[in-house]
Design goal:
This protein has five helices and five strands. The chain has about 140 residues and is α/β, with parallel strands linked by helices.
Length: about 140
């Protein structure tokens, strides 16, 4: 898969964070198709191809906030653990907490990245670069 063909699902409820990361991705040259969902229930429907997402192709990468209202990122991860196909999708946790690394237990460490949301745009650019660099290592 070429970097230009990458389909990313980002589950994030902060509009400000979404706008900033899109800008950071552009600045580091990460070409992608980005589907953004702000709700955990919608994310599960997307991942399991339910309802209006029945024809949606699986993402090549999932970026997930753990602290979502309703169905949390932790709940999404629990559901992913039960599906061998979803367990293989590279996963980036982008959250405000540094204490929840254990949520990735059971996932292939080479396919997971745990990042704490930065407080400055300069640091966000570094994180966007880390995500960009992470992608080639997960190609099959």
């Amino acid at each position: 898969m070429k970097k230009d063909d990458i389909k990313i699902l980002w589950v994030e409820d902060s509009i400000g964070d979404i706008l900033l990361i899109k800008e950071a991705f552009e600045q580091v040259g990460l070409t992608h198709r980005l589907d953004v969902l702000s709700d955990g229930a919608e994310a599960l429907n997307y991942l399991f191809k339910r309802g209006r997402y029945a024809r949606t192709a699986k993402p090549d990468l999932i970026i997930l906030d753990l602290n979502l209202p309703g169905i949390s990122g932790r709940d999404i991860i629990k559901e992913m653990r039960n599906d061998p196909v979803l367990m293989r999708i590279p996963l980036v946790i982008l959250t405000s907490s540094n204490v929840d690394r254990d949520v990735l237990e059971g996932f292939d460490a080479s396919r997971c990245l745990y990042l704490v949301k930065p407080t400055s745009f300069e640091d966000l650019l570094k994180i966007a670069g880390q995500i960009k660099d992470f992608l080639p290592s997960v190609d099959d």
